[in-house]
Amino acid sequence: MKFPKPYTLKQIATLIDCNFKGSEDFEVLGMNEIHVVEPGDIVFVDHPKYYDKALDSKATIVLINKDVACPDGKALLISDDPFRDFNKLTDHFKPFKLANVAVATDAVIGEGTIIQPNCFIGNHVTIGSNCVIHSNVSIYDDAVIGDNVTIHAGTVLGANAFYYKNRPEGYDQLKSGGRVVIKDNVDIGALCTIDKGVTGDTTIGEGSKLDNQIQIGHDTVIGKKCLIASQTGIAGCVVVEDNVTIWGQVGVKSGITITKGTVLYAQSGLGHTTEEGKTYFGSPAIEARAFFKERAYIKKLPEILKKLKDL
Asked: In this predicted model, what pLDDT tens digit does every residue of 6-64 receive, in sequence order?
């Protein structure tokens, strides 16, 4: 998430009431999660296991819960609770806005686009030309939808990320200030849920087609011309490259890459990055050819055991 204008390190430290290391005029341009940070961004870290990763990242401002040496060319915001203070910044720069109409007055809707009854179109939403948005679709604030997009009934674009910190008093949610971006010529089936990014974009690439009842997690990027069948669940921060096919009831772990041309057979559970152009099956998913060979060997076990018994 980029801020509407550059801020200084001192201004940000004042907003969240914390100490800082670095020049008080150090430029701050935005805030992001570690997998999408750029120079000028704030990244937060609150566990020693990830200190080095955050300090060595592209982020030039690190919101951290320990007074450590500041890397050259960077700045630190030192907080007793970086998670809480990252949420404070989200609330400041992307506050929740109450809606009092079904279609926000500042929504931009392109020529030839049809919005069926009982839809909700939030603040600052942009919808391109020649789209069809069927009844009871909810499109939360800041979503961007391209041309020739079809979205079927009951789908929700832009719910919060499923991202929590376990505290003694209960789970504390990391607030979401990102967007959902749907490119041109995408079809989205009924009752799909696509969560917005925590700080960046959850993106569905040009020409991709989603069946009914699919869940796409926060900050996941779906490439061009992908096919995703019903009841698939893709966790947050997944990269799905172009021309991937995912059949029904597949589950995908967060933070991995499904490479170009991958095929995932139905009911697979994928927990690792794939190899380009290969087909996978099973849970945990392995290359489909190897899976079927293993199944063939298992079927032969009674025969093998019988032969051993007869020796």
From this structure: 999 999 999 999 999 999 999 999 999 998 999 999 999 999 999 999 999 999 999 99
Q: Do the Cβ atoms of 1 and 87 come closer than 8 Å?
A: no
What string of H, E and C letters represents the secondary structure of 218-282?
CCCEECCCCEECCCCEECCCCEECCCCEECCCCEECCCCEECCCCEECCCCEECCCCCCCCEEEE
**Residue 124 and residue 15 in one domain:** no
Kindly report, residue by residue over 141-165, the tens digit of the pLDDT: 999 999 999 999 999 999 999 999 9
> Tell me, what amino acid is at 26?
F
DSSP-derived 3-state class of residue 152: coil
In angstroms, rounded to a whole number, what is the distance separating the alpha carbons of residues 220 and 18?
32
Pairing assessment for the beta strands 132-133 and 150-151 based on DSSP bridges? parallel
Q: List the CATH number of the domain containing 241.
A: 2.160.10.10
Closest listed residue to residue 45, CA positions, set 101, 12, 1, 83: 83
Active site residue 152: no
Instruction: Provide the b/e sequence for 144-177 (b: ≥16 CB within 10 Å).
Output: bbbbbbbbbbbbbbbbbbebeeeeeeeeeebbbb
- Of 30, 24, 31, 29, residue with least CA distance to 45: 31
Within 8 A by CB and 6+ apart from 199, the residues are: 1, 30, 31, 32, 33, 36, 90, 177, 178, 219
Q: Do 251 and 228 contact (CB within 8 A), yes or no?
A: no
Q: Which domain holds residue 22?
A: 2-93
Catalytic residue among 92, 152, 218, 272: 218
